[in-house]
From TrEMBL:
<keyword id="KW-0732">Signal</keyword>
<dbReference type="InterPro" id="IPR021889">
    <property type="entry name" value="DUF3500"/>
</dbReference>
<protein>
    <submittedName>
        <fullName>DUF3500 domain-containing protein</fullName>
    </submittedName>
</protein>
<dbReference type="Pfam" id="PF12006">
    <property type="entry name" value="DUF3500"/>
</dbReference>
<feature type="signal peptide">
    <location>
        <begin position="1"/>
        <end position="20"/>
    </location>
</feature>
Amino acid sequence: MRRIVFYLCVFVLTTTVSHAQQVVAAVNRFINTLNNEQKAGTLFPFEGEERYNFHFVPRERKGLTFNEMNDVQRTAALNLMRTCLSDGAFQKTQDIMQLDAVLKEIEKRKPEDHYRDPGNYHFSVFGVPSATTIWGWRFEGHHISFNFSMDKMKVVAGTPAFLGSNPAVVQDGPYKGKQVLKEETDAGFGLLNTLTAEQLKKTITDSIAPKDIVTFNNRNIAMAQNTGIGYDELSDVQKQLLLQLIGVYVHRFTKLFADDMLQEIQRAGLANIHFAWAGKKQPGIGNPHYYRVQGPTFIIEYDNTQNNANHVHSVLRDLKHDFGGDELLEHYKTAHTK
């Protein structure tokens, strides 16, 4: 038995190291395609404030965009994304970027207007990527933000991890019927629709959904815990549905990191997880709704209220490790003052 456990530990460690090496190799391949001017606009200090400059709205950003890349650079950038995102999340990012073209058409913007632009998504790297350093990278633009932090051979964080969709369901044109965040929507309603009248009294915190995710783009978040119905107040089937809902968000990342995060959630105690709902209990346009899943180590938020409830915002936050966490930053500072 000890020999089996030993081999399992070696396998997990080897696999983790291999994944970290893939990420380091991918980011350095990307960096090596950049000229000096592009590097100046893409590479930032790990300890700087820019690493915390998180948002999901159309705005001016730092970092190199797809519009500024050649074909080789675009391929390297996409390969970097694939080392940290699951296949499903990678596809969602591509679909969300294309929705900017849909919005441009809906809003009848001129071709030279780049407020809606599928190529206006930015890559930034923080610190010096290697197998022996602390560093990070970010991919961000309208309705997408992933913030990765690495400590040598370990992915420490991928949060804040935001995905949004406008329209939530495309109504016209060649993309009619497209629903990029259908999984997030269906998993929330799937759990809600199993709740009894008594359970709903505990779950529904307000008849009116908030206008956006409550955590918004705040660097530090503090929200009341134990809001909504607790894990232990659910049936066995409902517990599985809640865990599946959490999995939808955690599995935005590649399997190894997702598994690490799920283990941390479990260690903090499933009994401490709560599910809350606000707004309408029916899906569809015209029915604004919101849900939150919260435990000691994480918060998930989903909000569909804007544009007559056809505009979704969804996010996963790690209460300990967002942006790598304070502990990682202190470790970085200590390593650089020796």
